[in-house]
Specification:
Helix content of chain A: under 10%
Strand content of chain B: 15-25%
Number of helices of chain A: 1
Distance between the termini of chain A: 24 Å
Oligomer: heterodimer
Order of helices and strands of chain B: HEHEEHEHEEHEHEHEEEEEHHHE
Distance between the termini of chain B: 64 Å
Order of helices and strands of chain A: HEEEEEEEEEEEEE
Radius of gyration of chain A: 21 Å
Largest interface: A-B, 27 and 29 residues
Largest sheet of chain B: 7 strands, parallel
CATH topology of the largest domain in chain B: Rossmann fold
Shape of chain A: elongated
Number of domains of chain A: 1
Number of helices of chain B: 10
Structural class of chain A: mainly beta
Structural class of chain B: alpha/beta
Radius of gyration of chain B: 25 Å
């Protein structure tokens, strides 16, 4: 948690430049991504809560980055047989993520409708160690590590004809890559399995809306589907 | 007599306890499908149960919560069922079938005729001198794999009867170092027994089930019709198997003397990612070579049907583990035979290693050895907890070897 506070202070310091408008956003959500872990088809589930800092660079561009804390789990119990002693787990352990992205309006169709591009990159890391006492000799530990990068590029059509509400719809190209690694050690028997994480459907359809209440308070919700299911909500305070 | 180092070889191995051919009828008992002496009856709402019981000599055991249904105890089930279905008081009658939970411990029970006699794979007890569960639990391992054709287990022995019905099509002909030809036919019987334990065809309704029944067997003859050979022939057999791509080599043989040529052959196996399994010997004395070269190989002693050390099994600080080695039924030229010896314990471990490599082909010989010993049952742990010279780490347990550890 201390790291999180330091990160927040650092981001405020970096973004609080004179003349720039920046927003501190509290964000929560859930993503269930259709994935392949090695040859196993499953979903990779991520719950997350965190903070995001956003800075308006110009009329048509905004940059953000943030951190989040949550839980990583597999859609079902998976068995990892390449280890000397197989293990099975649905994982479900804490994870940390960092991410950065931007909103850019390269094209305005009309006063009400604009095209927004949203590139974003994130990195998630989760690790856990289990102590195992399976039988007289099978005693030791298993260490698990799930980490992956996720690059998303969204093309959104945003309706800006209302004062306080900004609905949008769009498509995200969503590609993630990483690995699930287990290292086991039972007495002097050691083994490791390292299986790649890949998406099964690298495209996400997103529907959402931003809300504004006065100059300083904003919010947003979004739902994504096709490559799984995701939903996010956020509340922002602009300074 | 050859002027060579004569191995105490298969004397090691075996007392092919009455290597008599078996010509018995299969006695495989399939699992029960129906509860004996019990039927389920759906009664007409106005039926007189007492009258029905009296008329057919059946006894009401209980009524089901499901309306109209009752369980009856019967003597002549088939006949009573036939009569009941035409009785006006009865709407339906059927056997009370067996059901089972689909839990993770589900087994694979092959339909081979002599499977019930293969106590070393699944020991149901029930006979004097046989303890239920004193087995390697192969039936549980088969849920995970029955072996891959990619995995070749070499049998460096007296050859293999490769036309045996339970082995035909599974044997790769290697080399005959006794007669210097390419026909490693078995003229003793020992090698055929070893091969059958490792990889006889299974689920074919006849004979026995090998442990790694999906694996291939490579037949290499380094011992003659008397079960005698030399270190040079044994070393050549091992090297041949390494060069021809075997992943496991079974050596149910050995000698009393250490030897550089034998040690180098064992080293070569390990360096080339080949698991070498060797029998401890049957003299109730020190381990034979190459078994005594453990941990470069896996040394295997014998246990009996009560999970005790077989009296004849050699012992010592280099003994890794034990596997059943008493009253072991296997293929034999012209039929099937039963034998005793660490010769027949070693192929159980070779078969287990073959299964493990079928599922996990990237494991090293050292990982295979450690996985086998650390998943074994410390069956003499009450008197000698942990590793001991007599049973090593314990009796192999393929359920523990293959069952994944659940991490919450």
């Amino acid at each position: 948690m201390k790291k999180g506070v330091l990160f927040l202070l650092l981001s405020l310091f970096l973004m609080g430049g004179e003349g720039l408008e920046y927003t501190l956003i509290f964000r929560g959500g859930y993503r269930s991504l259709k994935a392949k872990i090695g040859e196993k088809e499953t979903s990779l589930n991520l719950s997350l809560t965190g903070i995001k800092n956003s800075v308006l660079i110009s009329e048509t561009s905004e940059f953000y980055f943030g951190i989040s804390y949550g839980k990583t789990s597999f859609g079902q119990e998976l068995t990892f047989v390449s280890l000397p002693i197989s293990i099975s787990t649905s994982y479900s352990k804490p994870n940390y993520s960092i991410y950065a992205g931007a909103y850019w309006e390269p094209y305005v169709f009309s006063e009400e409708l604009s095209l927004v591009l949203n590139p974003e990159i994130s990195y998630s890391l989760s690790s856990h160690q289990w102590d195992v006492e399976q039988s007289a000799y099978l005693t030791g530990s298993v260490e698990g590590k799930v980490h992956f990068w996720d690059f998303r590029l969204g093309v959104l059509a945003m309706y800006e004809g209302q004062e306080n509400i900004e609905p949008y719809a769009g498509v995200y190209f969503d590609y993630f890559w990483g690995s699930v690694k287990f290292t086991e050690k039972f007495q002097d028997l050691e083994g490791q399995s390292d299986e790649k994480i890949r998406p099964r459907i690298p495209v996400e359809i997103v529907l959402g809306s931003n809300f504004y209440s006065g100059e300083h308070l904003s919010g947003g919700i979004s739902v994504g589907f096709l490559n799984g299911l995701s939903f996010h909500g956020e509340v922002g305070f602009t300074f | 007599m050859r002027k060579k180092l004569i191995l105490a070889l298969l004397a090691v191995s075996l007392f092919l306890l009455g290597a008599k051919l078996k010509d018995r009828e299969p006695n495989f008992n399939p699992p029960l499908e129906e509860v004996p002496s019990r039927i389920l009856v759906k009664l007409h709402p106005d039926a007189d149960i007492k009258g029905l019981s009296r008329d057919y000599g059946i006894e009401l055991k209980r009524r089901l919560l499901l309306k109209g249904w009752a369980v009856f105890k019967v003597k002549n089930k088939g006949e009573v069922l036939r009569l009941l279905v035409s009785d006006a008081r009865v709407l339906w009658a059927e056997p009370d079938y067996m059901a089972r939970i689909a839990d993770e411990d589900e087994e694979v029970i092959p339909n081979d005729a002599y499977f019930a006699d293969q106590w070393y794979l699944k020991n149901n007890g029930g006979k004097e001198g046989f303890k239920k569960g004193a087995d390697v639990k192969a039936t549980y391992a088969w849920k995970f794999t029955t072996g891959s054709e990619e995995i070749v287990v070499a049998v460096v022995d007296t050859g293999v009867a490769y036309n045996h019905p339970d082995l035909k099509g599974k044997v790769i002909k290697g080399y005959d170092f006794i007669n210097s030809d390419e026909d490693p036919r078995d003229d003793n019987g020992h090698g055929t027994m070893v091969a059958g334990i490792i990889g006889a065809k299974a689920n074919n309704g006849e004979g026995i089930a090998g442990i790694c029944w999906g694996c291939k067997i490579m037949a290499i003859k380094s011992f003659d019709s008397q079960g005698l050979g030399t270190y040079s022939e044994l070393a050549d057999g091992i090297e041949y198997a390494i060069e021809r791509g075997a992943r496991v080599i079974n050596v149910s043989a050995g000698g009393d003397k250490p030897s550089l040529v034998l040690e180098e052959a064992v080293d070569r196996a390990q360096e080339n990612n080949v698991v070498l399994v060797a029998a401890a010997g049957n003299d109730a004395g020190a381990l034979l070579y190459p078994a005594a070269y453990s941990p470069k190989c896996i040394s295997v002693g014998a246990s009996d049907p009560e999970d005790k050390k077989a009296g004849f099994s050699n012992f010592g600080p280099h003994l890794d583990l034990v596997a059943p080695g008493v009253k072991i039924i296997s293929t034999y030229p012209g039929g099937y035979a039963e034998g005793n010896g660490t010769s027949f314990a070693a192929p159980i471990i070779s078969g287990a290693a073959g299964l493990l490599l079928s599922l996990k082909p990237n494991l090293t010989p050292e990982q295979v050895r450690k996985a086998l010993i650390y998943t074994s049952d410390d069956v003499n742990g009450e008197s000698l907890p942990g590793f001991d010279y007599y049973m090593g780490y314990g009796r192999a347990n393929l359920l523990t070897l293959f069952q994944p550890i659940k991490l919450e």
